[in-house]
Design goal:
alpha+beta; 5-stranded antiparallel beta sheet; two-stranded antiparallel sheet
Length: 609
Amino acid sequence: MPNQRFADGEVVMGRWPGSVLYYEVQVTSYDDVSHLYTVKYKDGTELALKESDIRSQSSFKHRKSQSSSSSPSRRNTSRSRSRSPGRPAKGRRRSSSQSREHKDDKKKTIQEADLALLQKPSENNTRRYNGEPDSTERNDTSCIVSEQKLKPDLEMERVLEQYSLRPRKEEKKKEEIYSEKKIFEIIKTIEKASSKTKELEFGGRIGTFMLIFFLPATVFYLLMMCKQDDPSLMNFPPPLPALESLWEARVFGVFLLWFFLQALFYLLPIGKVVEGLPLSNGRKLQYRINGFYAFILTAAAIGTLLYFQFELHYLYDHFMQFAVSAAVFSMGLSIYLYIRSLKAPEEELAPGGNSGYFVYDFFTGHELNPRIGNFDLKYFCELRPGLIGWVVINLAMLLAEMKIHNQTMPSLSMILVNSFQLLYVVDALWNEEAILTTMDITHDGFGFMLAFGDLVWVPFVYSLQAFYLVGHPTAISWPVAAAITILNCIGYYIFRSANSQKNNFRRNPADPKLAYLKFIPTATGKGLLVTGWWGFVRHPNYLGDIIMALAWSLPCGFNHILPYFYVIYFICLLVHREARDEHHCKQKYGLAWERYCQRVPYRIFPYIY
Ligand code: NDP
């Protein structure tokens, strides 16, 4: 195999997969192992191409001048009579000015060819290369043809119809080019190559290595601080507990019991089964939606324990030991996940956790959807043991507060914290299906980051306010409580409606209930909403989430910053997450994403950021 023929940064002509059309692209990198070039098209789309699909600009121009009859630019102008998706619908035929524009196009060389013609969502995009049709915003949901990338027959049909490729002596060759097998091969090759993670996040190898220690250290630091009478930052470092006091086999046993009880609930054949979003190989995994039932069953089990006088504040008394147990378990789980991921087929690896560096892949998660039979480990851990565990911990804190302070009723602050967070968890479980379109499920692998996040960080850090209130009672008045409640409701409303709007739109863009929403079509077949919540800021769901986070901290008063750790950390997390998502969306949607950003300039906070 020859060495790299085209240099990084070189501008060449790259074939668009599944077609005979070449576009100007820039080589961004070359993979020695797969011998594939990663190239960037003018609209920002990045693909991996074989060397045979790349030509130098000079050779291309030369070839074109030799054979004008079969030049792609001519094909571009020849129209089929059939109703191809590339042709305007009856009611939307080209105006005369558009025809003139179209004729002018004939003069253009293939380098200037209309990439929009290749955009999969049909005639919405059939004008100019730069995605600037008269109006790219539609609320005509019928225009969306999702997943065409994975339907080569449609792709083939569309290309054939648009460019009248059927006759002529090259027919046999064309058939070969457009054969399903060939297109599938191309798509497979692209996806295989593009599954390698090139851009490392979280500070790369060093950053992820440090996070593996830093995250557990932060949890234990917060818990130790919270236990102090004066948890002010000035009181640093908190007295370290004796090492042997951190571990108790019984506590670990209770943790295991909890984990496997939740696993049992997950396996129960109750609740509907739905399909997730298509994977890179076109397959859709099935998920059982029974998180809410698991919550009800857990509530019944806890209720029974309380009825039989089980002291739930055992959790409070052994809180640190539970955190250590969960951390040890999540580390063991992460090691298992990494080892099993080494045997996973390439196509099942996470796009973000396949760098080839052990530490990085271990942290971010190497395998996208690790499953034992039908048991989806990531999906299970995302919402069950940690999230439901958080509610149980909060309840234990409430009972501990009553017991320690000899109260017949929990404090108003404790009631607010418990209620707000209960609403959040119940909402997540009630709308469990929505998680299937989130980054955690579709992009991030299952490794230390999510295992530790789901099983340790969520239950033990998110319950910090309730833990704090046990040791540091805070009295708030009814009007203050009412104001905080209103704030939480506003946050919740934004959070829920934004998430539902996007989730419903992704699941069924043709839903008549969403007909009022406008969107920008993109080359992938998916639209980007530009009205509704997603036209307000680019991540309205994060905005709602942050408002709620503030409402959860306020009942703890202003004596210490510790209970505000959550909201401060959460803003950092979501700002970082937003930047990651922007980056992915820019790669996915190219120019369409830029247009969306122009149209919706603020990322999370209106008029601020
Ligand atoms: P989002 O649900 O925000 O999804 C982002 C994706 O939405 C993008 O990648 C894109 O994916 C799609 N999208 C972006 N813009 C548009 C648009 N204009 N129109 C249509 N689709 C668009 O991602 P997260 O997974 O980060 O968040 C899910 C929820 O979970 C949020 O409410 C968040 O606040 C919450 N969360 C909570 C955490 C916690 O610890 N409590 C932690 C992290 C998140 P595509 O186009 O491919 O569909």
